[in-house]
Amino acid sequence: MATSELRSPKQVEDAAISFVVQQEKLAGREAIDTRYQGAVADLVSGDRIIEVKAAGTSFRGQDLWLETRQVQAARADPDRFWLYLVENVRQGDPAHFRLLRVGGEQLQQLMAKARERHYYEVPLPVAVYDAVLALDD
């Protein structure tokens, strides 16, 4: 079956979440998607709290963006909080995704080097995007 390239960030994120849910099932854990429930991370799976990061290609050498509450959770509960990095997602075929699990002491070493940043998230609704695009045509 042919797969097609994933284009939107939501498509990439959803594919990564689905992939991790399947991988957790193979590991004997049931992952529950908590993204839209106000939870600190994307999934809860067994005793793990999992924040999933998806990359179109690779995370190699890249910074990982975490919310303040995610950093706090990782520091407060180092045995339960995990980062799952799903790479090569944009091409669309889960058979070619790569999963890196970062937890425990390795995650704590990363948390010790975390740099706090402040920024604003400015929504760009579809209607505004389409209106701006129309002006450029």
From TrEMBL:
- Tell me where in this chain the Protein NO VEIN C-terminal domain is found: 12-93
Q: What is the name of the protein in this document?
A: Protein NO VEIN C-terminal domain-containing protein
Query: What broad taxonomic lineage does this protein's source fall under?
Result: Bacteria, Bacillati, Actinomycetota, Actinomycetes, Geodermatophilales
